[in-house]
Amino acid sequence: VSGRGIPAGWPAGYLADASGDHQGLSLVLFMLFVTVTLVITAWAGRRRSSSVEFFAGGRLFTPAENGLAIAGDYMSAASFLGISGLIALFGYDGLLYSVGFFVAWLVVLMLVAELVRNCGRFTLADVLTARMRHRRVRFAAGTASVTVSVLYLVAQMVGAGSLVGLLLGGSGAAQTWTVICVGALMVVYVSFGGMRATTWIQIVKTVLLMGGAVALTVMVLVRFHGDVDGLLRSATVGSGQGHAFLAPGLRYGGSGTSRLDFVSLGLALVLGTAGLPHILSRFYTVPTARSARRSVVWAIGLIGVFYLMTIVLGFGAAAVVGSDAVRSSNEAGNTAVPLLAEALGGGSGTTGGAVLFAVVGAVAFATILAVVAGITLASSASVAHDLYATWRRSERRGRRKAAARAAVPRPRPAEAATPGRVAGGVAESGEAELCEPRAQRSEEEMVEDEVRVARWAAVGIGAVSIALSLYAQDQNVAFLVGLAFAVAASANLPVLLYSLFWRRFTAKGAVWSIYGGLVPALLLVVLSPVVSGKPDALFPGVDFHVFPLENPGLVSIPAGFLAGWLGTVLSREPADEGAFAETEVRSLTGAGAV
Amino acid sequence: MIGRGPTGPRTKESSVDEQHGADPGTLGLEDPWRGIPATERGAPKVPRVRTAEETGGGFGGAVPEAGAGAARGFDEAGADRGDGNGRAGGTSWAGENGRAGGTSWAGENGRAGGDSWAGENGRADPDGAVVERHRRAELYLEVQHSPAFAEVRDRYRGFVFPVAAGFLAWYLLYVVAATTAPGLMGRRVVGQLNVALVAGLAQFATTFLLTWAYARHARLRRDQAALDLRWTLATRAEQERVR
Fold first, then answer.
1. How many CB atoms are closer than 10 A to CB A409?
2. Would you say A561 and A496 are in contact if contact means Cβ atoms under 8 Å apart?
3. Which one of A196, A324, A493, A504 is most buried, counting C-beta atoms within 10 A?
4. Are A285 and A114 contacting, i.e. CB atoms less than 8 angstroms apart?
5. What distance in Å separates the CA atoms of residue A110 and residue A328, rounded to the nearest whole number?
């Protein structure tokens, strides 16, 4: 793979001026991970490139493999470093994140995973259009998916840049190069390796991350001789807050607005996960709904244990390192776990401390790389399979209609008609297109085309994300993760639940539901204090904020549900009973599933 | 694997999840002829489909007919297709082949030929698609209204809806309590543990517990019935097609 050369150049000069030994070790470990992942990519890239292979990795992963990959997609560096850091700084209020991120998986398990696996092929839009055969539905779903993915990507890549600054003491130039290299690597993974490479990278990353977290947690517990109560007592002392450290209110206890903001975030976290495109697309890598369920059970086990460990690590950092020391290293607390690792290894300046610090840094990088690859793949699938295909097919259809106008089709009695292939996925045959002998060939070309477009879409999305991340590098973009969840919960989840469960839901309702969640969510953020009016806002100079909350979920999620209901009620034509019957039967029995 | 000859009495359930590295298409779940050379198709090795009769599933009055007709339907179809048409892609009932087919596109654009008999035989029939769509909708509506499917759906909804409402309410209560009643949440229970921490750990515990309960419920109460329906439906669709 040509990508091999990309990362080789950049750290060389950087390595030279790295002051401590842990930087060097971090880089070596990280390069090892990059090499392994590139080998995986090269191996996966040698296979034939059908769309099933590219978008779903051949659909033959086992539940355990897919569960590991789902966990890998979900456990970002933000949760490894960010949540532990928040717990180290704010105690209990940081723990609330862990709970929200974790409980969300019940929604995925019970309401989404199996049904989506049974009805869809590659993307969220497939599930919707299985029932509402409408180009506008597919286009809207594709747009929402790409929006969520890009928001999430930028948050991750900016995080990668600042991580370099934190862990390796790098300057602005180092951060810029990190963002560019992470972007380039993720493009290489996705466009050469497709879903198969991305999945194996996630698996490797999950093993590394879980291994690192387990090792640190065990060391913390050993240090306190297994006495959790003692750990908590030390944490209250180390935080300097006393018992208030273990009670709610340190971070979100201020004004009524900040409390509402927290409820909003909590709602977005618990409902957003089920609408994340890169999570949904993972269910298509296993053969059946039953395997999809079993992979989610695996993922829940891993994610639950992981978040429990972040709690121990967060309190451990408060106890061992102390909240003030964490805060002085990084305002947001992102260095809590690396500092904890250093302290557990023997403290600053010792070999053990340096090694552990380096390991944690490398694991965090691996985490970021894997997560961005997963998101890039999901968004490139949306671009190619939903947006591009909508445009391409509408164009073809226009041409065909023009041709059909010339030739009037002969009417035929129903009995003599085609021995109908009833039921199942591809049962619908073309209309006038059947006349064309070249029709099938062009259909196959279109599939090849789709994969080709997806590869290039990954390049395009990579370029856009790199540009946005470089622009946002010095901004406070912590709100972007919460925003991505809010958009997913407002635009993707309502339409998904409605089309799976609501008999009367119509195509108009679907389109309204998506835009009715997407537009308010984005609009409210633009009008919120994170964009203007505050000193740490995106545009601190101006003030056009009217919406008080930082997270729009509290308003935009109900808006999405309401818009879907309204659009359905206002539809002139009723819902297609047969289409709903098909969706319901297929979603619960797996009949006709690909 | 089912549909691929003498692999012994494997249950349907295991065969669905174990692929042994094969392409899902070769499972033969949806297309019993796949992977069998054309010359053998006249006498296909009929998979032993456990019928609705045996399992007490199936839907409505169509059950015995569908069950008994399974083998016959396969035979007829096999003979019918031994005419050199080969498998022009259209036979797969479920469209498991990785082509850009699938329901998703179907109505949006009209599919390329080769996916229906009309296409294979070169009969251009614009009305065929409409008729076909109708028949498909009718079949699905029939299944949807059948007692067997109602059973599966009720079991699913009967478990998932109350439980989902329960855990969402419990989570929201937890979040709202943390923001509105910090005093209550800060009250100590034992040692350093306070109500808030206990509630947080309880959220973890209930999530693990409900995951286990759901998986168990689905495995014991839903999987077999759903799979039976899927098979009955597949058989039935085959029959309709052959008829």
1. 14
2. no
3. A493
4. no
5. 43
- The Cα–Cα gap between A366 and A206 comes to 9
Q: Check CB contact of B128 with chain A, cutoff 8 Å.
A: yes
Residue A456's CB is within 10 A of a number of other CB atoms, namely: 16
pLDDT band of A34, cuts 50, 70, 90: very high
Q: Which two tokens stand for residue B60?
A: 């409505």
Check residue A298 and give its pLDDT: 97
- pLDDT tens, residue by residue, A125-164: 999 998 988 889 999 999 999 999 999 998 888 888 877 7
Residues in a beta bridge with B193: B190
Residue with tokens 């609330």: A96
By the CB < 8 Å criterion, does B148 face chain A? Answer: no
Share of chain B above pLDDT 90, in %: 26
Best to test chain A binding among B1, B140, B231, B241 (most A CBs inside 10 Å): B140
Query: B95: helix, coil or strand?
Result: coil
The length of chain A is 594
Distances (CA, A) of A542 to A242, A468, A523, A535, A548: 40, 20, 17, 10, 16
Rg (CA), chain B: 25
Residue type for A347, please? G
Nearest CA in chain A to B18: A62
Closest by Cβ to B17, choosing from A291, A417, A430 = A291
Residue A392 tokens read as 């391409």
H-type alpha helices, A321-419: 323-329, 336-344, 351-381, 389-406
Contact between chains at B98 and A418 (C-beta distance less than 8 A) = no
Q: Give the one of B16, B125, B237 whose C-beta lies nearest to A434's C-beta.
A: B125
Burial class (CB within 10 angstroms; exposed 0-12, middle 13-18, buried 19+) of B144: buried
Count of positions (residues) in chain B: 243
Per-residue confidence at A66, pLDDT binned at 50, 70, 90?
very high
pTM: 0.79
ipTM of the complex: 0.87
CB neighbourhood size of A523 (10 A): 14
Confidence band for A46, pLDDT divided at 50, 70 and 90:
confident
Q: How high is the pLDDT of residue A21?
A: 62
pLDDT of residue A405: 66
Under DSSP, the state recorded for A574 is P
Residue A561's pLDDT is what?
97
Q: Which runs of consecutive H residues, i.e. helices, occur in A472-532?
A: 479-487, 493-501, 507-526
* Contact with chain B for residue A408, Cβ under 8 A: no
Q: Residue B122 carries which DSSP code?
A: T
Interior/surface letters A171-189, b for 16+ CB within 10 angstroms, e for the rest: eeebbbbbbbbbbbbbbbb
